[in-house]
Design goal:
Radius of gyration: 23 Å
Order of helices and strands: EEHEHEHEEEHHHEHHEEHHHEH
Helix content: 40-55%
Shape: globular
CATH architecture of the largest domain: 2-Layer Sandwich
Number of helices: 12
Largest sheet: 4 strands, mixed
CATH topology of the largest domain: Nucleotidyltransferase, domain 5
Bound molecules: adenosine-5'-triphosphate, magnesium ion
CATH superfamily of the largest domain: ATPase, nucleotide binding domain
Distance between the termini: 43 Å
Structural class: alpha+beta
CATH class of the largest domain: Alpha Beta
Strand content: 15-25%
Length: 306
């Protein structure tokens, strides 16, 4: 498998992953060694690589190959499923949620308790059922299932929104020629995305780079306000100077695809016996922090209302 860079040049994917993992390990070693007397050697470090639970054996094997390229021997490597790691970790957190279930603190659940784990990450969303076996162990009652509907899908929808405003050609040029502005725009979107609430009357204000406006005006010979007219966002999104104002409803719609797929998958699973027994749903992974996703899960599955 190869990966292309922005100029279409390709490299082996395993090399790219290997170099990235090596960078992380080296960087961690540097940071740790700064804070201690003496030195940790790479051979003294055991590496745990976490992967989404729904990854195929081939995908996991690919990660093993990549870690080999990062000079991590198999004796020093553990591969772990993200939902399992998160689930075990939560068992040792004192999560006290006001809940109808008096025993809903993860650290107090009795042996034999079954609970659903929804791991919502950047790339994937996966759902599984775990059963508490002992203080430190759990059993996977139902193999994970899910799909690639993670939070990156929301980022992609934002890209589509900008592309609809300025057109595909201009947007491509912007991404190629004004990388810094594009990176800034993505970073700002990441922050706004994390703050998004469902029922808010607020408008979201973001910077609309002047370099993008200029590119649009140069290539379309129209001013940027005209671009909105044909985008379907006229009267909704407002562009003024280098500011873009987006109504909260339009912003929340960016989550629709990912949230709808997640909820319909969850609902389809709830018909299964292993899911019917579970009275707790544990949301883990970065995207689980999203109030939009939390709201949709609680609306669709009120029995898990916290
Ligand atoms: N408060 C938040 N609201 C919305 N999304 C968030 C929030 N915090 C983090 N995210 C998103 O969560 C994702 C990262 O989550 P996580 O670290 O669980 O992913 P991952 O495990 O690397 O991905 P995968 O499981 O697909 O391999 C990013 O896409 C990030 O934008
Ligand atoms: Mg993950």
């Amino acid at each position: 498998m190869t990966i292309e860079d922005e100029f279409g040049r390709s490299l082996l994917a395993a090399d790219v992953f290997g170099i990235s993992i090596k960078f992380l390990v080296d960087d961690m070693l540097n940071a740790v060694n700064k804070g201690i007397h003496g030195l940790f050697k790479p051979s003294e470090i055991h590496v745990v690589i976490t992967v989404p639970a729904i990854w195929s054996d081939a995908a996991k094997q690919f990660m093993r190959e990549a870690t080999k390229k990062a000079e991590i021997t198999k004796e020093r490597l553990t591969m772990a499923l993200e939902s399992e790691v998160a689930s075990l970790y939560c068992r040792h957190l004192h999560i006290h949620k006001p809940c109808e279930l008096s025993n809903a603190c993860m650290d107090k659940l009795p042996i034999g308790t079954k609970y659903i784990v929804l791991d919502a990450g950047g790339g994937t969303i996966d759902v599984t059922v775990h059963e508490i076996k002992s203080e430190h162990t759990l059993r996977e009652v139902r193999p994970a299932s899910g799909g690639d509907w993670g939070c990156i899908m929301v980022d992609k929808e934002f890209e589509n929104l900008v592309e609809r405003i300025v057109g595909e050609k201009v947007f491509e040029k912007f991404k190629q020629e004004e990388k810094e502005d594009w990176l800034d725009m993505q970073r700002e979107f990441e922050l706004k995305k994390r703050e998004t609430k469902v029922n808010s009357a607020d408008k979201i204000r973001m910077r609309f780079p002047l370099s993008l406006t200029k590119l649009y005006e140069k290539h379309s010979e129209k001013d940027s306000c005209t671009s909105l007219a044909s985008s379907g966002y006229a009267g909704k999104i407002n562009l003024k100077n280098d500011k873009m104002t987006i109504p909260n409803t339009v912003f929340v719609e960016l989550f629709d695809k990912s949230v709808t797929k997640t909820i319909s998958h969850l609902k389809s699973l709830l018909a299964e016996d292993s899911f019917k027994e579970a009275r707790i749903l544990l949301m883990v992974g970065g995207y689980s922090e999203s109030l939009v996703l939390q709201h949709a899960v609680i609306e669709a599955l009120p029995k898990f209302k916290s």
